[in-house]
Amino acid sequence: MARKDLLDIASLHREEIEFLLDQSTSFKKLFTRSVKKIPALEGKSVLMLFYEASTRTHSSFEVAAKRLSAEVTNFDVAHSSITKGESVRETIETLQAMRTDYIVVRHGHPGLPAMIARQTTASVINAGDGAHEHPTQALLDAFTIKEKFPDPRGKKVLIIGDILHSRVARSTSTLLQKLGVEVAYLGPGSLVPKYGPATIPRFTDYEAAMAWAPDVVYLLRVQMERQDVQFFPNVREYHRVYGITTARLAEIRDKGLYIMHPGPVNRGVELCDAVMDYERSLITNQVENGISIRMAVLDWLTPGGDFPKQEAYAARQQAGSSLLMP
Ligand code: CP
């Protein structure tokens, strides 16, 4: 069951997901102890390689790695030779020479973490690649839902917003379906793709989507930075039609629904301010659970372990040739 890399949710087996969720439960128990650190990754090194901005994913990976006693290095993209035109390939070749054990990477290009994983013996973790995947977000979302619904089979999660550009929607809906959760999409027709599993109901009307009777409403961030054309008239109109307004929050409270959001929240767009004080908002739980999930992932992966080209790599290195895999 050991894996070298975590690149997507699509290729994860249900047993692997269940294992990671169980491990996360164990790691979370450490958080209430006075000493939160364990020596699981003592002597190992984790490199954080973030080409895109991040608060939650970056900081929780760093905390997770440190709680497992790993050494963490933050690669400063803005002040690296990348600004002088160094290619990703050359960066990875350089990092490979430093023999880091784990590389946590976020990049705007889909598939880039997988490309890096093929070129290094380090375990590569995809911390978000363009609109493709964000596997650890999906795992922490599932973990957060399972804390409220220990057997989530048959529960319903309505994902609202910019599905088209969302790596969170792709990873989280794939994972939830693997756990037997029903998923539906709601958003403007321009942001809800028609392709993808036909089993997922698609709504463009808020009332119709709420009639589907979700247990959880999961708001996505409107990703202005990935929208090169206009997908809806303006953010005010978006909030009125698809946002959780004060009036809608009152209905949601009456129905006892949970609210989730991966962050960062565009206040006044996806959610009204009052959601921050809503007793069934799980947004803070999601952030907290990001640490134990990422501890579980780091602890689970095996750097170089089942990497078929490891011997070839060592031979190439000995011969003084390129450190990159062919
Ligand atoms: N959810 C998430 O990926 O947040 P950050 O961009 O802050 O990491």
UniProtKB/TrEMBL annotation:
<feature type="binding site">
    <location>
        <position position="167"/>
    </location>
    <ligand>
        <name>L-aspartate</name>
    </ligand>
</feature>
<protein>
    <recommendedName>
        <fullName>Aspartate carbamoyltransferase</fullName>
        <ecNumber>2.1.3.2</ecNumber>
    </recommendedName>
</protein>
<feature type="binding site">
    <location>
        <position position="137"/>
    </location>
    <ligand>
        <name>carbamoyl phosphate</name>
    </ligand>
</feature>
<dbReference type="Pfam" id="PF02729">
    <property type="entry name" value="OTCace_N"/>
</dbReference>
<feature type="binding site">
    <location>
        <position position="106"/>
    </location>
    <ligand>
        <name>carbamoyl phosphate</name>
    </ligand>
</feature>
<dbReference type="GO" id="GO:0016597">
    <property type="term" value="F:amino acid binding"/>
</dbReference>
<dbReference type="InterPro" id="IPR006132">
    <property type="entry name" value="Asp/Orn_carbamoyltranf_P-bd"/>
</dbReference>
<dbReference type="GO" id="GO:0044205">
    <property type="term" value="P:'de novo' UMP biosynthetic process"/>
</dbReference>
<dbReference type="Pfam" id="PF00185">
    <property type="entry name" value="OTCace"/>
</dbReference>
<comment type="function">
    <text>Catalyzes the condensation of carbamoyl phosphate and aspartate to form carbamoyl aspartate and inorganic phosphate, the committed step in the de novo pyrimidine nucleotide biosynthesis pathway.</text>
</comment>
<feature type="binding site">
    <location>
        <position position="264"/>
    </location>
    <ligand>
        <name>carbamoyl phosphate</name>
    </ligand>
</feature>
<comment type="similarity">
    <text>Belongs to the aspartate/ornithine carbamoyltransferase superfamily. ATCase family.</text>
</comment>
<dbReference type="GO" id="GO:0006207">
    <property type="term" value="P:'de novo' pyrimidine nucleobase biosynthetic process"/>
</dbReference>
<dbReference type="GO" id="GO:0005829">
    <property type="term" value="C:cytosol"/>
</dbReference>
<keyword id="KW-0665">Pyrimidine biosynthesis</keyword>
<feature type="binding site">
    <location>
        <position position="134"/>
    </location>
    <ligand>
        <name>carbamoyl phosphate</name>
    </ligand>
</feature>
<feature type="binding site">
    <location>
        <position position="56"/>
    </location>
    <ligand>
        <name>carbamoyl phosphate</name>
    </ligand>
</feature>
<feature type="binding site">
    <location>
        <position position="57"/>
    </location>
    <ligand>
        <name>carbamoyl phosphate</name>
    </ligand>
</feature>
<feature type="binding site">
    <location>
        <position position="221"/>
    </location>
    <ligand>
        <name>L-aspartate</name>
    </ligand>
</feature>
<feature type="binding site">
    <location>
        <position position="84"/>
    </location>
    <ligand>
        <name>L-aspartate</name>
    </ligand>
</feature>
<keyword id="KW-0808">Transferase</keyword>
<dbReference type="InterPro" id="IPR006130">
    <property type="entry name" value="Asp/Orn_carbamoylTrfase"/>
</dbReference>
<dbReference type="GO" id="GO:0004070">
    <property type="term" value="F:aspartate carbamoyltransferase activity"/>
</dbReference>
<dbReference type="InterPro" id="IPR002082">
    <property type="entry name" value="Asp_carbamoyltransf"/>
</dbReference>
<dbReference type="InterPro" id="IPR006131">
    <property type="entry name" value="Asp_carbamoyltransf_Asp/Orn-bd"/>
</dbReference>
<feature type="binding site">
    <location>
        <position position="263"/>
    </location>
    <ligand>
        <name>carbamoyl phosphate</name>
    </ligand>
</feature>
<comment type="pathway">
    <text>Pyrimidine metabolism; UMP biosynthesis via de novo pathway; (S)-dihydroorotate from bicarbonate: step 2/3.</text>
</comment>
<dbReference type="GO" id="GO:0006520">
    <property type="term" value="P:amino acid metabolic process"/>
</dbReference>
<dbReference type="InterPro" id="IPR036901">
    <property type="entry name" value="Asp/Orn_carbamoylTrfase_sf"/>
</dbReference>
<feature type="domain" description="Aspartate/ornithine carbamoyltransferase carbamoyl-P binding">
    <location>
        <begin position="4"/>
        <end position="147"/>
    </location>
</feature>
<comment type="subunit">
    <text>Heterododecamer (2C3:3R2) of six catalytic PyrB chains organized as two trimers (C3), and six regulatory PyrI chains organized as three dimers (R2).</text>
</comment>
<feature type="domain" description="Aspartate/ornithine carbamoyltransferase Asp/Orn-binding">
    <location>
        <begin position="154"/>
        <end position="301"/>
    </location>
</feature>
